[in-house]
Amino acid sequence: MKNAIAILGLALLVALPVSAATSLTGKVIALDAGHGNGETGAVGVCNGVEVIEADVNLAVRAELKALIEAGEGTVHEVAQRFSRQDRVADAESAGSDVLISIHHNGSTNTSADYTQSFVTQKNDKIFAGYIHPALVDALQLPNKGIKNDGYGMTVYGSLPGVLTESYFITNTDAVCDFLDYQSGATNTRVQKEAQAMYDGLAAYFSANTDGGGGSKGRNR
C-alpha cells in the first residue's frame, strides 16, 4: 500500500506543470509611462470625449507589465517625475537592464498617424532595432523609423533605452480605439502595442543574453 501511495505521489509530481524559463527570466525592465504627474501630454478627442496621452501611456505600461511578469521578467515602474534625467536615474538605481519610455505622438492634424522611435546612444539603437520593427509590424502604420535625437530620456545614463511614439493619440481613430479599450474591447491598439513591445523584448534578450550591457557594471 505504501509503495502504491509513493508511486501515485511521484506520478502527480511529474504531472505538475513546471514553469519554463524565458529570455526575460531574471531581467529587470524599466517602464516609463511618459508625462503624468500633472502633465497630460497630447490630447485627442473622439465624439466630444477627450483622451490624454498620459492615460494611454499608463494603460500600455499596465498591459506590458502583465505580459513581462507572465514571462518571468521583473518590471520597474519608473516614477513619474518632471525631470527626464531623474526618471532615468530611477530606472538605473533599480538595476534595470533596459528602459522603454512609452509615449504617443500629437498633432493638430487629426488624421496624422505613424510609428517612430527615438534613441541617442549606440546601445539604444541596438535595443530599438528589436522594439521598433515589432511595433511597426503590429500596428501596420507608416514607418518613420528610428531617429537619433538629443532631447529624450535616452540622452542620460548608459542604460539601453528607447523612447517610443507608437502612434498619434490625436488621431481620431486612435482616440476612439482607446475609448473602446476602456470599455473592454480586445485587439485594440493598446493591446497590440504592449504585445509588440513584449515580443521585441523577448527577441532582444534572446539575442543578447547578457542584457545588452545595461546599467549593471557599466558607466557612461
Care to describe what's here?
A hairpin with a 2-residue loop joins β2 and β3. The protein starts with a helix and ends in a 13-residue tail after the last helix. The model is unreliable at 4-18 and 211-220 (pLDDT under 50). The chain is an alpha/beta fold. The chain has helices spanning 2-15, 53-70, 84-93, 122-139, 172-182, 189-207; strands at residues 28-33, 43-46, 49-52, 74-77, 98-105, 115-119, 143-148, 161-168. α4 (122-139) packs across α6 (189-207). The chain is globular. The strands form two sheets. A six-stranded mixed β-sheet has the order 4-1-5-8-6-7, with helices on both faces. A two-stranded antiparallel sheet has the order 2-3. The longest helix has 19 residues, at 189-207. It comes from Candidatus Taylorbacteria bacterium RIFCSPLOWO2_01_FULL_45_15b.
At the first level of CATH, the class is: Alpha Beta
Shape-level CATH architecture: 3-Layer(aba) Sandwich
- Summarize the amount of helix as a percent range: 40-55%
Q: Shape from CA axes?
A: globular
Number of helices: 6
Tell me, rounded to a whole number, the average pLDDT: 87
The SSE order reads HEEEHEHEEHEEHH
Number of domains: 1
Assigned CATH superfamily: Zn-dependent exopeptidases
Radius of gyration: 20 Å
Q: Decide which structural class fits the backbone.
A: alpha/beta
The poorly predicted ranges are 4-18, 211-220
Strand content: 15-25%
Q: Write the CATH fold name.
A: Aminopeptidase
| Strand arrangement, major sheet | 4-1-5-8-6-7
Organism: Candidatus Taylorbacteria bacterium RIFCSPLOWO2_01_FULL_45_15b
Signal peptide: 1-20
Keywords: Hydrolase, Signal
GO molecular function: N-acetylmuramoyl-L-alanine amidase activity
